[in-house]
Amino acid sequence: MKFNSKYINTISYKLLFCLCCCIMMLASCKKLLEIPLPATKIAAEGAYVTDRAAAATNNNVFGNITNSLFFDGAQSIGFKVGLYTDELKNLNSLSTLNTAYYSSTILSADGGPLWSFCYKQLSNVNLTIEGVRASNTLLFKNQWLGEALFNRAFLHFYLVNLYGDAVITTTSDFLILKDLGRSPKADVYKQIIADLKEAESLLANEYKDGTGVTTATNRARPNKFAAKALLAKAYLYTGDWVNAEAMSTEVIGAGAVYKLLLPADIDKVFLAASQETIFALQPIGVNFERDFTAYTNNMPAVLPVAVPPAAARTFESYVGASLTQSLLDAFEKNTATLVDDRRRTFWVRSSIKPANGAVPAETKYFPNKYKSSVAGAEYIVIMRLAEQYLIRAEARAMQNNFSGAKEDINIIRTRAGLSPTTAENQPDLIKAILNERRVEFFTENGHRLFDLRRTGNLDAVMNNEIIAKGTGFSWNTFRQYWPIAQDDLLSGTNLIQTAGY
Q1: Of 46 and 304, the one with more pLDDT
Q2: In sequence order, what DSSP letters do the residues of 313-333 get, joined into one string?
Q3: Is 337 helix (H, G, I), strand (E, B) or coil?
Q4: Where does the pLDDT of residue 359 fall: very low under 50, low under 70, confident under 90, or very high at 90 and above?
Q5: Percent of the chain scored above 70 by pLDDT?
Q6: Distance (Å, rounded) from C-alpha 200 to C-alpha 155?
Q7: Does residue 250 or residue 492 have the better pLDDT?
Q8: Beta bridge partners of residue 383, listed in sequence order
Q9: Any bridge partners for residue 279, and if so which?
């Protein structure tokens, strides 16, 4: 893979470094520690002289990931995977991109942006890892190195889960990077696990802010348990049930740090201060979580009736997708009280389009996890405690610890106001866990596609779903992974397209 100017512009870094030096000379009356570095810039070797500057290099990556649109909103992984699988129904037929994902017919131009974005960030991450490792002046070296290693694992995790075989990048050396090709998925996971194990050994139990000193009130930088949580997920995805159980147990057992909210508070899971959050991205400045715009966008419970000569308002004039009937049907009721799953009650909203002449009224349902357009009210939740219980449940079921698996499933079901699971054997428990994951994590960060594929259910579900969508296309197994953009393929002789495209 040729990492040209799109990935590593060495000259630009040197020019930037020289510019920073000039600025510091002009401002010699101030100490470097008093001049905060921009979160969107990396100041070459000078970035690893002080803790504040080293923190800023990680800020650059956190900020880019947060602002990338890949983790919230109508361009996010969650939205695209929702359309691609069986979570979302496309309402915007005029969007060729929405239609391509909905019909599972994406081309290299549709599937590639995340690939190039991740490798741009990985080049920054590797510069940080190398710079921090070599520095002898940092007081909080472990924090900055642990954060960077976490970010490297995090980026590789999404690359391997969306594209399959991926390029493993652990250096900023252009002479090495330019000739790299894709590595097998198993090798990518080995690197992810190695990075997370080292990150876990370096990071503190507490959440730290950008100074490395103060315990943060938010969870927008990873701590030791965030590394453990992602490690538990990596072990689960690779079938290492023993270690998946061990890591999830450590996160669950972290005392008062993480708590499942009471059933009455399930509508508060995605608030900025939620104790269920393990790791989140903090929207920057005046921005808010863009899933609100993607799925809610101030749509009223009853759409306005048209007043001539105005046209009638439609669902798609507000948002681009609604929930599928198959997802709505996956929510259960409490068998004793017949009350709906509280996730259905609080994380799903409906809107009615009134009857218009001979056209009858219509009701559609939409994700309602993020409810606010107020900056700072909600964070982009990447990992939360409920997943750790379901990771442990699955790991226990695969080790024939059925009572332990049921215990973990029922903790999640009780929080949702449901009756205990009736599953008793391994196949039924795995089926029950997969359904709990479906209704717990719908439209969140690609969970559905990843879960269907790793459990061997993707082809069966998609063969049925593609018919229900009525797009006229059929499902092909090779589409379990996405293609790389043509521009990226042309950047190096050793990079090949995802199989089938």
Answers
A1: 304
A2: P-GGGT-SEEE-HHHHHH--B
A3: coil
A4: confident
A5: 89
A6: 16
A7: 250
A8: 279
A9: 383
Q: List, in sequence order, the alpha helices (H) in 290-401.
A: 291-295, 325-330, 342-347, 385-398
**Lowest model confidence (mean pLDDT) among 34-43, 75-84, 221-230, 313-322:** 34-43
Give dist(CA 447, CA 317) in Å, integer.
Answer: 28
Residue 302: DSSP 8-state: B
54 DSSP 8-state letter: H
Count of helix runs (H) and strand runs (E) in the chain: 20, 6
Residue found by looking up tokens 């005029």 in the block: 94
Predicted local confidence at residue 5, as pLDDT: 43
The pLDDT value recorded for residue 357 is 81
DSSP string, 74-129: TTSHHHHHHHHTTSEEE--TT-HHHHHHHTT---HHHH-HHHHHHHHHHHHHHHHH
Beta-carbon contacts of residue 338 (< 8 Å; ≥ 6 apart): none
- Cis check for the bond before 113: say yes or no (omega within 30 of 0): no
Asked if 257 and 279 count as a contact pair (C-beta separation under 8 A), the reply is no
In the block, which residue shows the tokens 């001979």?
358
Distances (CA, A) of 231 to 67, 199, 207, 234, 354: 25, 10, 18, 5, 49
Tally the residues of the chain. Answer: 501
Instruction: Give ∠ CA 389-272-446 in degrees, rounded to 5.
Output: 50
CA neighbor of 406 nearest in space, from 425, 434, 382? 425
Q: Looking at residue 476, what is its pLDDT?
A: 95
Distance of CA 29 to the CA centre of its chain: 43
Q: Convert the pLDDT of each residue in 116-158 to its tens digit.
A: 999 999 999 999 999 999 999 999 999 999 999 999 999 999 9
